[in-house]
Amino acid sequence: MDTVIQTTDLHKSFGPVKALDGLDLEVHAGEIHGFLGPNGAGKSTTLRILLGLARASSGSASVLGKDPWGDAVELHRRVASVPGDVSIWPNLSGGEAIDLISRLRGGVDDAAYRERKQQLCELFDFDPSKKGRAYSKGNRQKVALIAALVTPAEVYLLDEPTSGLDPLMEAVFTREVRRLSRENGASVLLSSHILSEVEQLADRVSIIRSGRIVDGGTLDSLRHLTRTEISFAQDSVDTTALAALSQIHDLAVAEGRIKFGVDSDRVHEVLPLLGSLGVKGLLVAPPSLEELFLRHYGDQVAPAAPEPTHDGAPHRRRHRTVAKTGA
Amino acid sequence: MPTVWVLYRQRLRRDRWQLLSWVLSIGVLAWFAVEAITKTFGDEASRAQVLKLATATPAILVLRGLARGPGLDSFTFFEIFTFLALLAGFMNTFMAVRHTRAEEESGRAELVSATAAGRWAPFAATVLHGIVANLVLAAAVALGFMGGGLAPAGSVVAGLATGAVGLAFLGVGLLAAEFFSTSRAANGISATLVMVAYLLRGFGDATGSVSPDGMTVTAAWPSWISPIGWGQQTFAYTGNQLWPLLLPVGLATVCGAVVVLIMSRRDVGASILVGRRGRWEARPWLRGPFALAWRLQQGSIIGWCAGGFATGLITGSLGSAIQSTLNSNASITAALREMIQAQGTSMTQLLVAALFEIAGVLAAACGVQAILRMRQEEAAGTAEFVLSEPVGRVRWLGSFMGLGAISVVLVMAFTALGAWLSLVASGDTSTAVGDVWATGVAQLPAALIYLAVPAVVFVVWPRATIPAGWALLGIGVVLGVYGGMVGLDQKIVDLSPFTHTPVVTDTGTDWSGGFWMLGIAAVIAVIALVTVPRREVGTA
Ligand SMILES: Nc1ncnc2c1ncn2[C@@H]1O[C@H](COP(=O)(O)OP(=O)(O)O)[C@@H](O)[C@H]1O
Ligand SMILES: [Mg+2]
């Protein structure tokens, strides 16, 4: 399969801060690639290097087989992008900004362009006649999105493109990106810190943490790496036989139920034993990507920890990261 | 009350350096004026002579004030008060908008209003902040005049007059902030009103009635509708009247009351005038970074050109006025040469040289601003949009620099045009009329240096661009334009580009300084263009 984006051992430091620390990323032609990671993980830095706005400290990066820093102008004719932090000209209207950006890309002002622009403005429920300073965060984001989507490109580099959009608009965005990928065969690198956003669109994902790819692959293959949670009523079941099995992890008793985790691809090996034990109230919880994801985000989220802590602790941790990188 | 106090402290903290530099500059300027006048027109006879010239030349009165005899103190008040009041006006309108509309625009006001502070506490804190600032300003001006050796009572009156004018414009600024949805518009309109107040009283003073001995002028009615004109009516030192100050203080009160009325009826963030709607589509010419640079700066470039044109017009009218009333009396020419610190042989040349120097600074400021605009683009993040498209960095920088160079030339062209028109209209037929074009060209090299140097700073040390740009211009002006006057060492004065601006005379013009600076500007510009591809794009 053709590779459109490749980085090898990419490093980028800002003074003492190592934003990227040996990043290896590969995006195949025609795929939508989710680029997931907590705030401050280095997603924007990666995309800025791929756009030739920032220069790597060491390592190599290529987009469409070219050097993003050296061949920036040539590449930008074929690459569309949405920046991570969208700001627009306060005294230009949204319509003017969209026209300007697409003209810079070399788009022609023909009827087809106008029609497409009009269509996108309607889809995103966007009024292009307001001055830039009058737009809300979500509307500024729409300017960037429409400008990126209005003229065709081979590669799309989208940095948290749905931030500030309401769920309805997110759905519009998802549909448009899917269409780009299906109809035009475009490749998309989509960064996000929210799994659910990427889950709907991405063919493959790479998870970045502290400037490094810590996990990746198709969503299904990632699911295989997770554990399925099984629990049943305690009653008077003898669990010694269970504890001896190597497929079983973190066996525990809580609130009258016995709980444990099983490697997802080995669940079938455990089921016969459960049958012979005659367990009651059996619950088999499918692997959750969220959990895998949080495990990569947080410092030490135990896979079999009770539910409430799943929702509580990692979220708090996430907010802390926000505060740190907010400046 | 404690909330107001907390908010007041926050304003003080935020403004401390900015306000301190305004207040100190204005105070020091007052002191400087006394020193300079004592040095240049030490005796009453020479002051009387200059006063006679001035009162006979309405155009000079526009830039000075109302004459009240040749005493050192009243002469100083005549020379400098309106300018101090003008500065006080700008200080106050910017301060008012900074703490009101700018806060609302940025959304910070909403944060504060959502707390226990409500919507009135921030306003009260701003008013308190303004009143205190103007009291301090009054003290600084009084001390400045006293420091120069003028009478304490009159100095206090002059200080209070400055502070009261400042207070009036605080009210104007606060009111403007209610009307416009952006701080840019509010600043623009209120600064324009300050200018209008200055010009109104200029017009009133110039058309006032002059006493038979030419030593005193009584203002015509336009001065009476200007806060700066009201301040003048105190006639510090000779009259020491305080009642005219009721007018500016009253205006401030009325403005404040109207603001309260409007604020009690509007939402946070709303304004009386709603911003204009924009275009659905960009105009066909808005393609490419040069067009964008123009689109972003057209307003300010037109403003700079208008400033140049106005400066040019003044040159012509001043020159012809002096020529016709005095027919170039040699001793008066010498006196005037001292007064405006310029070279030149004929009276017209003298004025052209002096005022084109100002226009040259204007053109240089225009050049600096072209580069600062680009840095603002980068800091705001909009540059990223442009550079994520097929636009090379050299083309990007080149576009802004190219437009900067064009606007520098335009400013000087409009200055020369203004001077030429007004000189021709006045019937002046001397060779100096043709010289205005050459004098305009002579200012270009120094101004272009102020385009090239900030461009290099922008490439190698982006964060320093804005402070370095203005600081370099300020230092250049102080050294080059005022350095000689205060007796600085020539080696230091030579550091300023303005020192090397060729002086056009009919005895032969030495253009070498201009060619040198043009060469240096070109080399620096090339360095900027060659190094910019190596630079990253960022907001930091
Ligand atoms: N211009 C910069 N100067 C200094 N540090 C930076 C700069 N840009 C990014 N960083 C740091 O690099 C790290 C990665 O940031 P970023 O790529 O923006 O993360 P993400 O987009 O994943 O949230 C963060 O720790 C951030 O603080
Ligand atoms: Mg980011």
TrEMBL record, chain A:
It is found in: Cell membrane. The keyword Transport applies. Gene3D superfamilies: P-loop containing nucleotide triphosphate hydrolases. It holds the Pfam family ABC_tran. CDD domains: ABC_DR_subfamily_A (cd03230). Belongs to the ABC transporter superfamily. Residues 303-327 are annotated as: Disordered. Keywords: Antibiotic resistance, ATP-binding, Nucleotide-binding, Transport. It comes from the Bacteria. One of its GO terms (molecular function) is ATP hydrolysis activity. This is ABC transporter. The keyword Transport applies. The lineage of its organism: Bacteria, Bacillati, Actinomycetota, Actinomycetes, Micrococcales. GO terms for biological process: response to antibiotic. Residues 5-235 form the ABC transporter domain. InterPro entries: AAA+_ATPase, ABC_transporter-like_ATP-bd, ABC_transporter-like_CS, ABC_transporter_ATP-binding, P-loop_NTPase. It comes from Sinomonas humi.
Automatic annotation (TrEMBL), chain B:
The keyword Glycoprotein does not apply. The chain crosses the membrane at residues 20-38, 75-97, 118-145, 157-177, 184-203, 242-263, 301-322, 350-372, 400-421, 441-461, 468-488, 514-532. Keywords: Membrane, Transmembrane, Transmembrane helix. Signal peptide: none annotated. It comes from the Bacteria. This is Polyketide antibiotic transporter. It comes from Sinomonas humi. The lineage of its organism: Bacteria, Bacillati, Actinomycetota, Actinomycetes, Micrococcales.
